[in-house]
Design a protein that fits this description.
alpha/beta, Rossmann fold, 2 domains, 7-stranded mixed sheet, 6-stranded parallel sheet, 12 helices, 13 strands, 40% helix, disordered N terminus
Length: 348
Amino acid sequence: MERTIQTDRKPGIGRGSTLWRGLATVLATVLVTGYAGALTGCSTGSSGNANVTKTYQIGVLQPVEHPSLDTIYKGFQEGLKEQGYADKVKLDFQNAQGDQNNMNTIAQRFVADKKDLVLAIATPAAQAIAAQTKDIPVVGAAITSFTAAKLVESNERPGGNVTGVSDMAPVDAQVALIIDLAPQAKTVGFLYNSGEANSVEQVGLIRKAVEAKGLKTTELTVTSSNDVQQVAQALVKKCDVIYSPTDNTVASAMPTVAQVANAAKIPVIVGADSMVTDGGLATAGVNYTELGKKAAAMAVDILKGAKPADMPIKVMTNEYQVVINKKVATLLGITIPDKYKDAQLVGE
């Protein structure tokens, strides 16, 4: 006998039906699409997230606080902004307060923290970090001679992990200031820290140039800012004009030098514009804001993959400005020659 079995299932929607297969396909598509979207939304950082930008860790080491070095750091920050990297880096600024032990400790910490790059402002800072690492890229700023400081193999091809921007002052322009603003001078006195390699380099170049002009030279050196007043008082008795290069020790105590020299009616030609603002007579020096910006551009190139070993040292000797302290000139009875009519005047 044939039996008929009744069911509640409606015709046309069974597992084998065309409609069922269509629904299954749609459901599978939705699930796969959602899963792929979830994977895209959950990817992170260097593991594959295109939506998350890496934040680069940059250590900034400055040996001492004074306006020129501070200006470089501000220029560096401005440069990062101009390069579109202000939000892509985290800056760890450290000032060693003139203490070499502090500088070495900070350099060691930067290495331990595995910074992506270090900005070393001034020679002592660059030497401190270079002594601690051969791997972390270092961009030096306000370093007169990278070769004299033994930081690179050559300016054209540094060859290691250090590169940067030199603040070598234009020698001819500096000597011209000495002769033009102190035309009666017979002896030039040099005031600097003999422990700063770049100061030794600059003084050597200026000495050779002024002696070639028939002037005599003398010098007294300092070892710390505590020596500056006593040494300056001795130097003003031995010369008619003082020249001080971009020396960190002297620059940090420039108001003291100015007080002594101006009282003795001795003009002081200096290596940096901040030293003029602090009481020196005049300089033909680099623009430290622009120097900081150039350092930032080099840093960004390195973060993008460039190698310091292949990046030539940038020199700004053709990008200098003459700055004259008008108040000091008046105090010393000096008439500013017409050739300097376009100079930047401070102290008005």
